[in-house]
Amino acid sequence: MGSTGTGKFTDYPGNPESVKGVVGPDSKEDRCELAISTELEDVETSEYYKKYGKVPEQGSFVSIGFKVRIVALNKEKLTIGNLSTEYNYLLGCMENGFNYTGVIEDSDDGCAPFIKIAVTPNIK
Fold it and tell me: Within 13 Å, how many C-alpha atoms sit on residue 24's CB side?
């Protein structure tokens, strides 16, 4: 269960080059202000899956948090999966007052359980 980030050191917070990560490709675009739609990693080892033996239903509430990695959380604050390392910049965004909430766009308990989420930013 690896990560699907870029594989570069800039994926990780604390790297001097990752400070640039808050600004998107167009210098006028702040990535912290962008909505995100992504499939989660490590769903089958998440707190939620271990507790309930299934994935949360489509349409369920989700928020983004930090527990060693950038994670998706349900209403109970149980992790439901990890975000790819390409989203590590979100830690800086959250430290600067952003929070991210949304819903589960799609989920399935099949052979390889998966969850796809859609979240939007809000300023605290």
Answer: 9
Per-residue pLDDT, 123: 84
In Å, the largest CA–CA distance within the chain is 44
Q: What is the pLDDT of residues 77-102, one digit of tens each?
A: 999 999 999 999 999 999 999 999 99
Encoded tokens for 51: 């507790």
Spatial CA neighbour of 64 closest among 44, 45, 37? 37
Extract long-range pairs of 2-8: CB within 8 Å, 24+ residues apart. 3/41, 3/82, 3/84, 3/85, 4/41, 4/84, 4/85, 4/86, 5/84, 5/85, 5/86, 5/88, 6/85, 6/86
